[in-house]
Amino acid sequence: MNLRLSTSTYGCVLIGAMAALCPMILGCDPMGGLIPPGAEATALGTEKEPAARLAESSAVDFEALVASGGTTPVEDLIDDLKVAPGVADAYLSVDGSTIIVELTDGERISLFTDEKHRAQWQADGSGRRILADAALDVVESIRTDPGLRKSAAVAMGSTPDDFIICDETSFPQAPKACVVMNFPGQFRQDSANITTPLERAGFNVDVIRLQTIADVKQFQDSLSDCGVIYISTHGGVGETRAGKSANILATEIEIAQGSALASQMQEILGAYSGSQVNQNLAITGAAGKAYWGLTPEFFSQATYQNTMVFVDACQSDKTVDAGGDQLKDAFLGNGAGAFIGWNESISTKFSNPAVAAIFDGLAPADLGVTSLSIFTDPSDPGADQDYLPIVQVQPPVEGIEVRMSIVGTDFFRRSETKLTDSFGEAMFAVVPGGDAGVTDTITAVTGGADNGATVVDVSVKNDPTLPESCKLLWKSGAVSIANLKYSLRSGASAGFNLVCNNPDITTTDKVVKF
Q1: Calpha distance 90→100 (Å, rounded)
Q2: How far apart are CA 386 and CA 407, in angstroms?
Q3: Please, are residues 228 and 178 in contact by the beta-carbon 8 Å criterion?
Q4: Bridge partners of 312?
Q5: How far apart are CA 232 and CA 218, in angstroms?
Q6: How far is CA 182 from CA 230, 237, 261, 312, in A?
Q7: Count of CB atoms within 10 A of residue 243's CB?
Q8: pTM of the model as a whole
Q9: Where are the alpha helices (DSSP H) in 309-442?
């Protein structure tokens, strides 16, 4: 049977189809036509086109240099770029991997040459010579001594990392986790290694890919609502349009070429003003293609609720040139509680297992506990009266691990871990009595929570499936598993954690007042 549509019917069907597809088409009119780019978009497209074209061709050229087997592809490309038309200069950034291209019109291109998924990452060394960890420095609290109060307990000392105190400064204050997993086909990460621990910690997880300008704008608008932000992508220390050194992160949005760039700029101008384009976006090249990148200023426009930020990208925590824009500062300077990033180039051989170990270690284990309660015996101790702290879990199960931390206003500190008995109770060491007016804050947590550096040391460094170190033939130095904790930087207070976000497995009490 042949199906024929009249001209009028066909027109209605076409208009309906175009209206349905309109959100996905650049410059689309819901009535079925294409809106030509406006004057501002056309001007921006013309302004960006030379840099966009050179970014893509340079990324392709770099892959060709690598494929030819040369040992100096970075230097070779820089030499070629220095004499390319329209190029004022080309040089290696402070990270030792990113090629910065400065055009005569003032545009900047950041070419990443150390992508973490590269097949060229080679195992370096035949044996596993794991260096012994340096002994932890014991940092004791400042203590007063009113009548030798609790002196015996204080003398034990401890490291600050032992303590988990649930207050508004120690854990994220927003229950949403925003997980950006760009280039999943390249990085081959199992998203469950991130989402499952976050869900155990009580977060509502939103997995995102930055594939369109709409994705980017929606992500930026939601930043203030994210208690945890994880970003996996390509990165490096490049330069912004203003010529500032900065940690730049790639989106998955390929920069349009030729006349299509003006249409893409029309879409971008639907989200940002012309000045915001240069402020928020940068031109990058990675893995043979040109992508729009995000600058630190993109992230500095939001406020953060003691948010934990983990940027899993090369050079994400590399110190930039003086006067530049440090990505870490964009978060920590606007309220974030923790920033974790890489200080150098990193291979997925290390980054993927490290990320999985860190999230698993910072989140509690699922032990089936639905609530915790803190009791003291006596329930209302007086001045100088010792008391016994007790924690009970529900349902009452034997063998549940409970950590209890006590911090007194007289600088007494203690942290202990005990297992529950058959009644679901864990009894801790007797706390010596204190002077009148002293308050002890007691925090109880079940399911465990480890310091991030310890997680890397134990779970990653001792993983027999990992190579001792990895290197790129054209990059000096190798990423060593023995020194991984020095590459993975963390800017956070020692007591920062994720477990306190889940009220089922943690509780804090200040009922003990002397």
Answers
A1: 6
A2: 15
A3: yes
A4: 232
A5: 17
A6: 11, 18, 22, 11
A7: 13
A8: 0.84
A9: 327-332, 348-362
Q: Contact at 8 Å (CB) between 159 and 415?
A: no
Reply yes or no on whether the pLDDT at 286 is more than 70. yes
- With helix as H, strand as E and coil as C, how does 188-256 read? CCCCHHHHHHHHHCCCEEEEECCCCHHHHHHHHHHHHHEEEEEEECCEEEEECCCCCEEEEEEEEEECC
Gyration radius from the chain CA atoms: 28
CB 330 within 8 A of CB 244: no
pLDDT of residue 449: 67
**254 exposure class (CB count in 10 Å sphere: 0-12, 13-18, 19+):** middle
Please state which of the ranges 26-35, 52-61, 121-130, 311-320 shows the lowest mean pLDDT.
26-35
Report residue 478 as tokens. 């190798």
- Token digits of residue 349: 């051989």
Residues 306, 172 contacting (CB under 8 angstroms): yes
Dist. CA 68–CA 94, nearest whole Å? 26
If one counts every other C-beta atom within 10 angstroms of the C-beta of residue 127, the result is 6
What pLDDT is stored for residue 93 in this prediction?
A: 97
Number of H helices, E strands in the chain: 14, 23
